[in-house]
Design a protein that fits this description.
The complex is a heterotrimer of chains A (312), B (220) and C (213). By secondary structure, chain A is α/β, with parallel strands linked by helices. Chain A is built from twelve helices and ten strands. Chain A folds into two domains: 160 residues, Periplasmic binding protein-like II (D-Maltodextrin-Binding Protein, domain 2, 3-Layer(aba) Sandwich), CATH 3.40.190; 95 residues, Osmoprotection protein (prox), domain 2 (D-Maltodextrin-Binding Protein, domain 2, 3-Layer(aba) Sandwich), CATH 3.40.190. The longest helix of chain A has 30 residues. Chain B is an all-alpha fold. Chain B has one domain: MetI-like fold, CATH 1.10.3720. The longest helix of chain B has 34 residues. The termini of chain B are far apart. The chains are: A alpha/beta (312), B mainly alpha (220), C mainly alpha (213). The interface between B and C is large, with 37 and 47 residues.
C-alpha cells in the first residue's frame, strides 16, 4: 500500500519534466518532416550515440570527424549503454546517429532473420527497421562476435568449433555481456543452431576487462569477445569456428534517424566506410585501450591522415 | 505502467524465477551476505572509533570532517579504483560498502557519546568508576539509541548500494538491475529494485525491534 | 597504480566541462528537492497523520538503488539530463523533508502565538517567522543533500550521463586508473567547496545568529 502510493508520487514528480521532453521530441520530428525514405536535414546538428565499448566510441568520433569536415555540427555521447538501450533512444530522439553492425542489428530487429550475405542483410535491415530509422551503406570494416577459449581449455575439451561445445553440454561456463544471454547471436542462437547448453551464464561486459579477466583467471571457459580485440592474439586465445554461420557478417553500418539523413551526411559517412578497414579499426582500438589515447584524438588523427577531413 | 506492475507480479511469483544460480533465492542470499558482512566490518571499525573519540573528546573535529568527506566519496569511482588496483574479486565491493557505512556509524556514535550528561559521568567517577568502566557501563548504554540510529542508516545505505557488486561481475540483487539495464528488461530492473527495498525495510525494522528490546532491557 | 600526469594536463578542458556538468546536475536536484520538500514539510508539520506517512515514504524511496531509478525512468524521460535530475531529486527528499519538518517543529509555539496576536496572517507567519527560524535546520539538510547528490551523480554514468562519473566507466573499460583517481578527487573537492559555500550562505542568511554569537 505504502509502496504503490509512493511510486505514484515518484512518477507524479517525474511527469512534469518528462512531458516537456516528450513534447520537444515530437515537435522536432514534425518540424523536420520525417517521412520514411525522404531526406532529412542535418542543419540543426547531429547527435551521435555510442555503445559501452571502446570501438563504438572510436567509430562515433570517426563519424563526428568526417561530418565535422562536411560542415555538420556534431555532438558525441559516449558510453550510453547497449543496443537495447540505444535504439529506443534513437527512436525517441535523444540521439540521431549510431555506429552499428549489420548482422547484430538485423538479429536484434528480426531474431529469426536468415540473410547472411552483406547485400541481403542490407535489404533485410531496410525492411526490419522501424519507421523513422534507416541504415546507410555499410563500410568495409567488420567486427564480429567471437566465442573464444584459452589454449588449455581448447586442448582439454578438444574444442575448435562451436559445434564441439555440444559434447560438453552442462559443463562449461560462458561469460559475456548481460544482453548476450537474451540474444540470437548469443546463448539463444548457440542453443538453437548448435544445441549447446552451458552450465552457467556469467554476466560480464562487452569484450572488456571483466570478460577478459574472467577468461584469464579461468572463471569462465568460453568468452564472448570482439574479433577486433587485440587481446585475442596477444593472449593466444582460440576463436571457435562457426561452421553453421550462426554469427552473421558484422560490417560497420551507420544507423540514422530519417530526420537527419541528408545527402551531406550520407556522402561523408560513405567516404569513411570506403576507407576504414578492419585492420585500421583494430589498430585504432588498440591505441585507445593500450596506449590510453583518447578515442576522439585517435579518430581525428585517422581522419586527417586519410584525407577524410578535407572538404569535398 | 500498469503492464509493468502486472508483469512484476508474475516475475516475482514465478517458481522458475526463484530457483537456480540466477534465481531470486540465491541472489537474495548473496545480497544479504554482502550487506551484512560489510556492515559488520564497518561496525567493527566505526563503533570503537566513535566511542574512543566521544570518550576522550580527542580528534573529534578531524573525525567528523573525515566522515563528511567520506559521505562525498563516489561509490562507483571507489569500486573501479579498487578494482583496477586489486583485480577481479569481491574486495572492491567490500571496500566501497565499508567506506560508505563507516562515516554514518562514527558520526552517530560520537553524537550519542556527546549527548551523555557530563554530570552523570562525573557521578560515575565519583563512585570510583574507572575510565573504561564509565565508558562501558554509563556512556555506552546512554549513547545506544543514537548508535543504533547510525547502524540503521548505514545498513539501509549498504543494502541499496550492494547493487554495485553486479557491476564488477558478482551477484546479489543488483544482478537483476544491471542485467535488466543491458537487456532493457524493465520488469527485471523493477523486480530487483523492489527486492532491494524490501530487504532494506525488513532489516531496518529488525534493527528497530532490536533497539526497542535493548532499550527496554536497560530501563527495566 | 601510477598517475599519468600528462593525461591530466592534456584534459583540463574536458575535466572542466565534466565538473561543471556534474555540479549542475547535483544542484538542480537539490533545488527541485527543496521545491518539493518545502510544501510537503509544511503539510507534514501541520497535519499530524500525514507526517508519518510522508516521512516514511521518503525513507522507503531512499532504499531503492539509484541505478534502478535511473533505468526505470528511461521510458519516461529517456537518455537525458532530466532522467539524472529526477533520480537525484528523489534521493534528496529523504534528508530535505525530514530536516524541514524538524526545523518547523523547532520554532517555539510562543513565537507563533505572538505573531498571531499581532494579527499576522498564517501564510505571512510561515514565510516571515517560521521558515527563517527553521532555516538553520533546513540548511543542515541542504548541506547533507548537496554532498550526497554530488557523490551520487556519477551513478548516472550507467545511462550515459553522470558528469565526472564518465571518468569512472572510461577508466574501468580501459584499465586506466588516472581518470578514475582524478574523478574521485574532483568529486571530493566539489563536495568540500559546495559545502563551504553553503556554510557561507547560511551565515549570510541568518544574521540574527551572528549577533547572538
Amino acid at each position: 500500500m505504502n509502496r504503490r502510493t509512493l511510486l505514484g508520487g515518484l512518477f507524479a514528480a517525474a511527469s512534469v519534466p518528462a512531458l516537456s521532453s516528450c513534447a520537444s521530441g515530437i515537435t522536432s520530428l514534425d518540424s523536420q518532416g520525417s517521412t520514411s525514405g525522404g531526406s532529412g536535414s542535418s542543419k540543426g546538428g547531429v547527435t551521435i550515440g555510442t555503445a559501452n565499448f571502446t570501438e563504438n566510441q572510436v567509430l562515433g568520433y570517426l563519424y563526428a570527424a568526417v561530418l565535422g569536415a562536411a560542415g555538420v555540427k556534431t555532438t558525441v555521447r559516449p558510453n550510453l549503454g547497449t543496443r537495447e538501450i540505444l535504439i529506443p533512444a534513437l527512436k525517441g530522439g535523444d540521439i540521431d546517429l549510431l555506429p552499428e553492425y549489420q548482422g547484430a542489428l538485423l538479429h536484434y530487429l528480426a531474431p529469426k532473420a536468415t540473410a547472411t550475405e552483406e547485400g541481403e542483410m542490407q535489404n533485410a535491415l531496410a525492411l526490419a527497421l522501424p519507421a523513422g530509422l534507416q541504415v546507410l551503406p555499410y563500410g568495409m570494416a567488420e567486427d564480429s562476435d567471437a566465442f573464444a577459449v584459452t589454449q588449455e581449455t581448447a586442448k582439454k575439451y578438444g574444442l575448435t568449433s562451436l559445434a564441439d561445445l555440444k559434447k560438453q553440454n552442462g559443463k562449461l561456463v560462458i561469460g559475456a555481456a548481460p544482453e548476450v544471454k537474451k540474444r540470437e547471436v548469443g546463448v539463444i542462437g548457440l542453443k538453437d543452431v548448435y544445441g549447446v547448453e552451458f552450465k552457467e551464464f556469467k554476466s560480464l561486459d562487452s569484450s572488456g576487462p571483466l570478460v577478459k579477466g574472467a577468461l584469464k583467471k579461468g572463471d569462465v571457459d568460453v568468452a564472448n569477445l570482439f574479433t577486433t580485440d587485440t587481446d585475442i592474439v596477444a593472449n593466444d586465445w582460440v576463436v571457435l569456428s562457426d561452421p553453421k554461420n550462426l554469427i552473421p557478417g558484422q560490417h560497420v553500418v551507420p544507423l540514422i534517424a530519417d530526420r537527419k539523413a541528408d545527402s551531406t551526411v550520407r556522402k561523408a559517412l560513405a567516404g569513411l566506410g570506403n576507407v576504414l578497414t578492419t585492420e585500421d579499426l583494430t589498430e585504432l582500438n588498440r591505441q585507445v585501450d593500450k596506449d590510453k589515447k583518447d578515442p576522439e584524438d585517435v579518430a581525428n588523427a585517422y581522419a586527417e591522415q586519410h584525407g577524410l577531413t578535407r572538404r569535398a | 505502467m500498469y503492464e509493468l506492475f502486472s508483469n512484476l507480479g508474475s516475475w516475482l511469483t514465478s517458481g522458475t524465477q526463484w530457483s537456480g544460480s540466477d534465481g531470486i533465492a540465491h541472489r537474495l542470499a548473496e545480497h544479504l551476505q554482502y550487506s551484512l558482512l560489510a556492515t559488520l566490518i564497518a561496525t567493527a571499525i566505526g563503533l570503537p572509533l566513535g566511542l574512543l573519540i566521544g570518550h576522550t573528546g580527542r580528534g573529534a573535529f578531524l573525525a567528523i570532517n573525515l566522515a563528511s568527506f567520506g559521505r562525498a566519496l563516489p561509490t562507483v569511482g571507489l569500486v573501479v579504483l579498487v578494482f583496477l588496483a586489486s583485480g577481479l574479486s569481491m574486495t572492491p565491493v567490500y571496500v566501497s560498502l565499508v567506506a560508505l557505512a563507516v562515516p554514518a556509524i562514527v558520526t552517530n556514535t560520537y553524537a550519542g557519546m556527546t549527548a551523555v550528561d557530563p554530570d552523570v559521568k562525573d557521578a560515575a567517577r565519583g563512585q570510583g568508576m574507572r575510565g573504561h568502566q564509565v565508558l562501558l557501563h554509563v556512556e555506552l548504554p546512554l549513547a545506544l539509541p543514537l548508535i543504533m540510529t547510525g547502524l540503521r542508516l548505514a545498513l539501509i545505505q549498504v543494502v541499496a548500494t550492494a547493487t554495485i557488486a553486479a557491476y564488477v561481475s558478482f551477484g546479489g540483487l543488483g544482478r537483476y538491475v544491471f542485467d535488466g539495464l543491458a537487456q532493457r528488461d524493465l520488469v527485471q530492473v523493477l523486480g530487483g529494485a523492489v527486492l532491494v527495498a524490501a530487504v532494506a525495510v525488513v532489516l531496518d525494522l529488525g534493527l528497530a525491534g532490536l533497539q526497542r528490546f535493548l532499550f527496554r532491557h536497560r530501563t527495566a | 597504480m601510477t598517475i599519468d600526469w600528462s593525461w591530466i594536463s592534456g584534459h583540463t578542458d574536458d575535466l572542466t566541462t565534466l565538473t561543471v556538468s556534474h555540479l549542475q546536475a547535483a544542484l538542480t536536484a537539490v533545488f527541485f528537492g527543496l521545491l518539493i520538500s518545502l510544501p510537503l514539510a509544511v503539510v507534514a508539520h501541520r497535519v499530524r497523520f500525514l507526517r508519518g506517512f510522508l516521512l516514511g515514504a521518503s525513507n522507503v524511496l531512499f532504499t531503492i538503488p539509484s541505478i534502478a531509478i535511473f533505468v526505470l525512468l528511461l521510458p519516461i524521460s529517456g537518455l537525458t539530463r532530466t532522467t539524472t535530475v529526477i533520480g537525484l531529486t528523489v534521493y534528496t527528499l529523504v534528508v530535505l523533508l525530514r530536516n524541514t519538518v524538524e526545523g518547523l517543529d523547532s520554532v517555539p509555539a510562543k513565537t507563533k502565538e505572538a505573531a498571531k496576536a499581532m494579527g499576522t496572517r498564517p501564510l505571512r507567519t510561515l514565510l516571515t517567522v517560521e521558515l527563517p527560524l527553521a532555516l538553520p535546520v533546513i540548511m543542515a539538510g541542504v548541506r547533507i543533500a548537496t554532498v550526497m547528490s554530488i557523490s551520487l551523480v556519477s551513478v548516472a554514468t550507467y545511462i550515459g550521463d553522470g558528469g565526472l562519473g564518465q571518468l569512472f566507466t572510461d577508466g574501468f573499460q580501459r584499465n586506466y586508473p588516472t581518470p578514475v583517481i582524478v574523478g574521485v578527487a574532483l568529486t571530493l573537492l566539489l563536495a568540500v567547496v559546495a559545502d563551504a559555500l553553503l556554510v557561507a550562505l547560511q551565515y549570510v542568511l541568518t544574521p540574527w545568529k551572528r549577533r547572538r554569537a
